Amino acid sequence: MDKGWTRKPLDNISVISMPRPHIVDYRDIHPDGYVLIWKPEHPNAKKNGYIYEHRYKMAEHLQRPLKENEHVHHINGNKQDNRIENLLLVDSQHEHNIAHDPDLANPNHSREYKRKWRLDNKERLRERERQWKRQYRALRNFFGLPRV
Ligand SMILES: [Zn+2]
User: How far is the CA of 138 from the centre of ligand 1 (A)?
Assistant: First the structure.
């Protein structure tokens, strides 16, 4: 763990494409556009010690950790606008999908439409994750970074 990592809070967000806590201080932006902050002690932090800032803010607001099923949506669509008034707590992936496409809640939509929407979305997320991992693997080899 300790490779002489330097971490200090930054006011400015540094745009770096993946978690590199030993280089990046405190905040980072995930390639998916969300702000990550370094909070390894937080119950909602990922294994690599980062937590999405919007999830962190919501947990602070609720004064409890978020549950597995809970998602936090950015009302104005700006993934980096993590003011509490821009955040909406939703109970499930389905509700979150509706937040992105209220048309999904339309009872007249066929099951098929909803199924396809979910699959497309899943595939998008997967592809992003794959890209990120590829990039990170390359960087890791080059800079000798830790596994995340
Ligand atoms: Zn959302």
Answer: 29
